[in-house]
Specification:
This protein has helices spanning 34-48, 50-64, 85-97, 108-112. By secondary structure, the chain is mostly helical. This is DUF488 family protein.
C-alpha cells in the first residue's frame, strides 16, 4: 500500500492495491529540510494517533485477507542522499507502540542496525 500523496511517476512491477492518504505527508511541509519535515510529520501522526492508524491498517489487512502489509513510498534508499517518511513513520510507531516496523529490501540489515535512517 502506498503512503504517498500521489502515485509513482514510473511503472511498477507490482500492483498497488491500497493507498493510505492519512499516512502521507502534507504538502505544506513536504519540501522542508529534514528536521522540520520530521517534526511536522510526527506531529501529524501524533494527531492521528496510533489507535486510528492501527484501525486503518487492520481494515486493509481484513479487506485483503492478509496481515502482511508493506508501506510504500518511492525514494531510492540505496542513494545515501535520499530519505523517506516511511522510516520516520517506523520510528514514530516504535516510539508510540513499542512495535518494530521492519525495512524490506537490500538495505534492511542497515536499517535494522540503525546505521541508515
Amino acid at each position: 500500500m502506498r503512503i504517498t500523496r500521489g502515485a509513482p511517476r514510473f511503472k511498477l512491477p507490482y500492483p498497488l492495491a491500497h493507498s493510505v492518504r492519512e499516512l502521507a505527508p502534507r504538502g505544506d511541509y513536504f519540501d522542508k529540510p529534514r528536521p522540520e519535515f520530521t517534526a511536522a510529520y510526527r506531529a501529524d501522526l501524533d494527531h492521528l494517533g496510533s489507535q486510528t492508524v492501527a484501525e486503518l491498517l487492520r481494515a486493509i489487512a481484513d479487506a485483503s485477507g492478509d496481515h502482511r502489509l508493506v508501506l510504500l513510498c518511492f525514494e531510492d534508499l540505496a542513494d545515501p542522499a535520499q530519505w523517506c517518511h516511511r522510516r520516520i513513520f517506523a520510528a514514530w510507531w516504535k516510539d508510540t507502540t513499542g512495535d518494530d516496523v521492519r525495512e524490506l529490501g537490500p538495505l534492511s540489515d542497515q536499517y535494522e542496525q540503525g546505521t541508515l535512517m
